[in-house]
Amino acid sequence: MSSPDKVFDALASTTRRKILAYLRDRPLHAGAIAARFDMSAPAVSKHLSILEGAGLIWKRREGQFVLYGMDQGNLAGHLWAFMQEVCPPSRTLRREVRAEHEAGEGQPPEARRAE
Amino acid sequence: MSSPDKVFDALASTTRRKILAYLRDRPLHAGAIAARFDMSAPAVSKHLSILEGAGLIWKRREGQFVLYGMDQGNLAGHLWAFMQEVCPPSRTLRREVRAEHEAGEGQPPEARRAE
DNA sequence: TAATGAATTAACTGATTAGCTAAAAGGTGT
DNA sequence: ACACCTTTTAGCTAATCAGTTAATTCATTA
Questions:
Q1: Which nucleotide is nearest to B59 (CA to C1')?
Q2: Which residues form a coiled coil (chains A, B) (predicted)?
Q3: E strands of A13-97, at which residues?
């Protein structure tokens, strides 16, 4: 499973998105996270391992506890890459870029787009 | 199912993300989309209806064909809202905001965080 | 109206997923 | 070693999902 696949898969669960929101400001122990959900600790643990596998959070053992925290850069990076792939630039920006290209080289802009 | 739920659910499939990428530059007929995948037309049709239900694409009948196109604003809007919810602002921005709060009211910033 | 083509809906199947409980693993302290 | 606590793994079940083929809907054209 490719990395973006794992990321979008991880984000597809409301529970997991909530976990990310909880971790937004500070790391939390596994127990503290589980306490906020109406489900068993093993269920939450599985969600955490999916988030970790997607590279969205890190974990560190601290004595008998396990601390989890966000990997903010990775989440932002993946979403950003996706936006670039799927959302075209605004019309005015696109016009600017085309003008630059046509001034500088003989290639039409279509020839440079990823296929 | 809430709207962001539908959006992330829609994005969780590689096939559906590919469809969005195909629609990035121009609308396409259902058949033209299905032709790019190694699966039956009904399967693709189901993917399209999930994307439509999430508000990520629109559809319009054109004679016997059905044209599909992206709803770029919606996709960008949802991802942006999510980023805001989950990715904290930069440290310096956060310091600024805290300074404002502490100047204005007696509550520490923690008391204002979602529980 | 009948025939054809495009797309969707219906009905079904196999695989995956989310949850549970019970058991194990890892760490602390007596 | 033992008891205790936190967390994860194993094994299971019910529900959901992605795909299939067959049948239906909608539009066109003879």
A1: C7
A2: none
A3: 28-29, 57-62, 65-70
Residue B4's alpha-carbon distances to B10, B14, B53, B76, B78, in angstroms, are: 10, 18, 11, 12, 7
What crossing angle do the helices spanning A3-11 and A14-23 adopt, rounded to 10°? 90
Residues 6+ apart with CB under 8 A from B11: A8, A11, A12, A82, B17, B56
Question: B48 near B57, Cβ under 8 Å?
Answer: yes
B26 touches chain A (CB under 8 A): no
Residue A61: what are its φ and ψ, rounded to 5°? -75, 135
The predicted pLDDT at position B86 comes to 86
The string of pLDDT tens digits covering residues A17-43 is: 999 999 999 999 999 999 999 999 999
Q: Which residues of chain A are within 8 Å of residue B21 when distances are taken between CB atoms?
A: 85-86
Comparing CA positions, the residue from B87, B68, B78 lying closest to residue B7 is: B78
Cα A66 to its chain centre, rounded Å, is: 22
A60: exposed, middle or buried (Cβ count in 10 Å: 0-12, 13-18, 19+):
exposed
Domains of chain B, start order: 1-115 (1.10.10.10)
Per-residue pLDDT of B58-90, as tens digits, reads: 999 999 999 999 998 888 888 888 888 887 766
B8: nearest CB among A4, A12, A87:
A12
Q: Which of residues 6-35 of B touch strand D (CB under 7 A)?
A: 9, 12-13, 15
